Amino acid sequence: MHLLSLFKRKVEVEQHLDIVDKYNDDMQIRREEVVEMMRVAVWCLQSDFSRRPSMSVVVKVLEGSVEVENNLDYNFTTPMVRKAIRVAGNQEDAIGVVASPLFPSVLSGLRSSK
């Protein structure tokens, strides 16, 4: 998680390029493309899975026919689901609510068969 928090801090101060390998000439020559790929990665990591692009959209971004969404969420915390605690008689306890992390299968959302 350290890399993601570092990335978030660099984005907040608009210093994406600080985390690009300074010793790799190819990365330096293609800095703008590298930053664009970072944005694609962030788009794919959105906490709200409904805001994530499908793989076909990612391919179109890589081909240059689709732009990366502008309003990206750089909070990479693990989303939590609130679960009501059941008490005797199958009634939900309005006071007792617990949170648990979502499983990766839930985070990735439903797969479409397009």
How would you characterize this protein structure?
This protein has 114 residues and is of the alpha+beta class. The chain is globular and about 40 Å long. It has five helices and two strands; from the N terminus they run H-H-H-H-E-E-H. The chain has a two-stranded antiparallel ribbon. It has a domain at 2-77. Helices cover 38% and strands 17% of the residues.
Largest sheet: 2 strands, antiparallel
Whole-Å distance between the termini?
33 Å
pLDDT averaged residue by residue? 77
The total of beta strands comes to 2
In terms of DSSP E residues, the strand content is 15-25%
Question: Any descriptors?
Answer:
alpha+beta; 38% helix; 114 residues; single chain; 2 strands
SSE layout and pairings?
Blueprint: H1 2-12, H2 25-29, H3 31-44, H4 55-63, E1 80-87, E2 91-101, H5 104-107
Antiparallel strand pairs: 1-2
Quick structural overview:
Keywords: Signal. This protein has 114 residues and is of the alpha+beta class.
